[in-house]
Structures are given as C-alpha cells and as structure tokens.
Amino acid sequence: MPSPKTTPPGDVSKIFTSFPFAGFPLDHLAVTQRRNVETAAAVVQLTVDSWQTVFRRQLDMFTQSATEGSTDLQELLSPGGAQEKLAQHADFFKSSFQKGISNFREVSDILVKSGSEATDLLAKSVGESLAELKGSLAKYEAEPART
Predict the structure, then answer these.
(1) Residue 42 within a domain
(2) Structural domain boundaries, residue 85
(3) Tens digit of pLDDT for each residue in 28-84?
(4) pTM of whole model > 0.70?
(5) What would the DSSP string read from start to end of 89-109?
(6) Counted domains in the chain
C-alpha cells in the first residue's frame, strides 16, 4: 500500500496574515512562529546528532571490548595452575565490569549534555517568543483605535 504524500506547509506568515484580527499585527506572530519551527528543527537535529554520536561511540566500545575480551580469553586458556587461572578470571571480570560502568557513564554524559543543550535552546526560544508577543500586544494596545 503506498504511503500518503504529505506536503510541508508553505510560508506560515501567509496563513496568519490572511485572517485580520482587529488590527493586531499578525505578521509579527507569523515571524515568531517561523522561528519556533526553526528552533524545533534545530532541536531535532541536535537530538539526531547526539544519538549518532552515541551509536558511534558504542560501536567503538564494542570493538574495543571484543579485542580485549579475545586477548583475555587467550590468557585464560593458556597453560597454568587453577589458582592462577581463577585469579586471572577475577581480574578479567573486575576489569570488564569497571570498563562497562565507565562506558555507561560516558554514554549517559553524552545524552545528558545533549538534553541540556536542547532544553536550553527551547527555553531561550520560548522566552524570546513570549517576550515578543508581549511587546506586540503592548504596541497594539497603545495604538489608537482604528475605524
């Protein structure tokens, strides 16, 4: 079944300016909304970039773990006494566990940083939009009534 085609909306300002609202400058609102859409697109791009970074880093971590695991396994399978092998196994487990925790923290830090950047970007955009709207409303209310 073919997927339905969607077309992106055109210039948002045309939508807002086609509805006169008792003299309120809707073109300002349209510009603000266009900036909000641009901010949302920037947040999406930031999110995609951070997840790509996480996936690449996890691939690097997996490759490194496989290489180290192979080397450690060869050491465990080499000739030696049972106590020596048990000690090697304990060291291998401890090292692997610590590396896993370290990797988890690294990936977590990447995601936290990305989330903070996205939140800051959205907060700034919303704050600016609301300030602009408030300013536009103040100008609109200060204008003499139109006939």
Answers:
(1) yes
(2) 24-136
(3) 778 888 888 999 999 999 999 999 999 999 999 999 999 998 888 888 888 888 898
(4) no
(5) HHHHHHHHHHHHHHHHHHHHH
(6) 1
